[in-house]
Amino acid sequence: MRRAYAAAARQILALRPGGVRIAFHTSPFLINRGLHFTHAILLFFAAAIAGTLNAIAGGGSFVSFPALLFTGVPAVQANATSTVALWPGLAASTVVYLKRLDAPVRLLLPLLITSIAGGWVGALLLLHTPQRTFVHLVPWLLLSGTLLFAFGNQIRAIAGRASAVEDLHQLSWVAIAVSSAVQIPVAIYGGYFGAGIGFVILGMLAALGMRDILAMGALRTLLAAASNVSAVVTFIWAGAVLWPQCGVMLAGALTGGWFGAHFTQKADPKKMRYAVIAVGLAMSAYFFIRGH
Asked: Is position 168 within any domain?
């Protein structure tokens, strides 16, 4: 399958000004780009900021993804590379949060299965999105992710008010089936783009009756990591990750995640949320203007 991907990609490669070979088709893309030192510095610090934000308030992709675009990386590869670079930090947070999980296996298992399956579908949709189409989608995706991030608490509050179930161990199979069905499109979005996905998951968990915000955060992180892991594997297998950029950003994200984890109690989450929202709106406006 991988050879077929490579063959298809070679057939559709097009040369754009500047000598960068990119693909405008529905197949995965194979790109061999050099990494300038100035770009490496920019990507490292952008990923460090993203890792710090993810550890404190979330929304790191609002920084890492545009940073790759600013350095000239095509949009699809930028999204794939950003996802892979930030995933280890998300996985590390999941390990830390595991002790806070208080959900029955009969709920966790269906949610994990739908998260992994949905993330895989979302990743395939991204790889089969023409480059030019995704470029036009970027500002809309950034804006939708920013709005989800900005109004996530309201979504969670509305869902929580509608809930009458307080004990997850007493959930009916109907409630579990409904929550698993809802998680499928959420996970597809997570594999395709994913910005703001955490707040959608929080809203669903509040609707199930969860009230412990730390336990909700643990399950949210686990489901986000599950949807992203299938996307990460798919992007790597398809050759859509630019490894020089990814390596630099991985180091930056881990550094930022370590910093954020140690200083999260000193930071004001509310101010950090406002900063993330401001960045998201600014990036959305920039790419809307750039696209016209």
From this structure: yes
Cα gap 10→15, rounded to integer Å: 12
Q: Can you read off the two tokens belonging to residue 132?
A: 């030019």
Domain, as residue range, for 251: 2-24+37-290
The domain tally of the chain equals 1
The most distant pair of C-alpha atoms in the chain lies apart, rounded to whole Å, by 61
Residues 64-84 have pLDDT tens digits of 999 999 999 999 999 999 999
Identify the weakest region by mean pLDDT among 180-189, 209-218, 226-235: 209-218
pTM: 0.75
Residue 30 belongs to a domain: no
Q: Residue 88: phi, psi to the nearest 5?
A: -55, -35
* DSSP string across 48-117: HHHHHHHHHTS-THHHHHHHHHHTT--HHHHHHHHHHHHHHHHHHHHHHHGGG----HHHHHHHHHHHHH
